[in-house]
Protein 1
Amino acid sequence: MKKLIYINKTAILIYIIYLVLISSCNTSKTNTNAKLNLDTANLLVKLKTDSFNIDIHTVIPFTTAATQRVLNKVFINVGNSNGRINVEGDGNYISIKNNHIKADLPFFGEQRQFTGNYGQAISGIKFNSMPKDYTISPHKKKEAIIITFVIEDSKTNTENYNIDLIVFPNKHVDVFIRSSHRTLINYLGTLDFVEEEA
C-alpha cells in the first residue's frame, strides 16, 4: 500500500513539473508572437496607405545549365556566383505609389522568346503602369505581408510579369517574378517608405 502511494506522489510531481514547463514555454511564445503580430499589422496598414520603394541589392537567378555557362564567364567578381549576384548600388528598384508601380531590374536567365539582347541594360525587367489583380494581405505561413500583382513590360505589349513581394517587419523583401517569356527570377531588397511632400 505504501509503495502505491509513493508512485502516485511521484506521478503527480512529474505531472506538475510538466505543466509548469509547458505553460512557461507557451507564455514566452505567445508574447513573442504578439509582438510580431503587432509589427506585421502595423506594416500592413503602412503598405496599404503609404508610398514605398524597394531597393534591390541581390539577384538570385533560376540557374539552368545554359545560364550557368554564361554567368560563370561573366561574373568573376569576388562574392558573386551564378546563383547569387550582388547588385547593391546599381540603382535597381521597385516603386509603388498610389497603386502605380514602376521598376528597373536586371535580368539574368534564359529568355523563352526574343525580348532583346542578353544583359542588364537592354533586356532588364522594366515596367511603369497600373497593375492588374493587385492584392495585399498577411502571409498565410510567415509573419509577413504578401503583395501580388500582374503587370506588363514597358518595352513590349506581349510580355507579362506575375509578381509576389513578401515584406517582413524588419523591412527585408523577397521578390519573385514569373514572366511569360523568361525563366523565374528572385530578388532580395530593402523596404523604404517615402514621405509625401506637403
Protein 2
Amino acid sequence: MTSNNYQYHCSPQWFVTDAMQFIPVSGVVGEPCAGNGVISEVLKLYDRVTNVWTNDLDPSWDDADYHLDATEEESWKMFPAADWIVTNPPYSGLDFLILEKANRYARRGVLMFLRHSFTEPCQNRANWLDENPQSHELVYPRYRFKENKYGRLGNDSATVTAYAWDKKAVSQLCRSRPAKKIAGFHSSPKNAPDWETVKEIVEQQQKRISFKLIA
C-alpha cells in the first residue's frame, strides 16, 4: 500500500495499448512515476521497446529501479538515458514540472497521460506550451481511478488525454477515442481485464501495425 503522502492513481492498461497505436514510442523508455508498474509492464510487451527503466518517489513501490523526485533537475541527471519518457504523473502542477524536464531529457519524445485541461494556457505553462506544441492529442472517455470519501468510484475533474511531444513529428494528430474503439476498455479498476487479455491485445496490434519511424 502506498503512503497517503503520495499521489497515486493506478493507470488502466488501455491507456498504453491505445496510445501505442498512434504514437511511435520505441527504444529505451523511462517511466518516472511508475507506481505499481502498469505502464512499464505493458510497454515491455512491445517489440519496438528495447528496455524500460522505472522510478517512483514513494519507496513503498520497491520494484522501481529508482526512488527520486522527478520534479527535481538533479534526479534527471541520475536517470539513465531514454529515447522516450512515458508516464501518468501526479497532477496539481507537479505534472508540468515533470514534463518540462522530461522533454529536455528525452532523445525522441514524451508521452504523458494528463487532464484534458492541461493545455489551457495557464500562467505557469502558457509560454512553454506555445513554444512546444504537442504532436499528438488522444482524448479518452472518463476513467474512475479511485473511491471517493463515500466509497464510490468517482471521476476526476476532467477526462484524461494522451499528450505526446515527438521531436521528429512533422504534423499534429488530434483524435477523440470512443470507448467502443479502445481494445480492453474498462471504466474502473473493478472491471479490468486479466493480464493474458492485455498480452493478446498487444500481440494483435503488433501483427497489424508497422510504424515508419522518422530517421
Protein 3
Amino acid sequence: MVDNLDMESEAGWESFARGAREVQDRERPPYIGQFSTAAELTAYVRRGGFEQVQAHQRSPLVVVTGIKPRPA
C-alpha cells in the first residue's frame, strides 16, 4: 500500500496551496507532506512489479494497493 496527499481532491489541493503560500521564498521544510495523483502512484506501483493495482481516493489522501506476485 502506498498513500499520499491527493492533488486531485479539493482538500489535497488546498493543503498544497496553503503550504506553497507558507514557504514561498524559503527552502521547503522536510516535514511538509508530499503530494501525488492517483495516476502517478499507480504508475510507480505497476513499475514496481505489482499486479491487481487499484487506486482509492479518500480525500485528502490517495491510496494505491497492489499484490506482488510470488517468484516462480
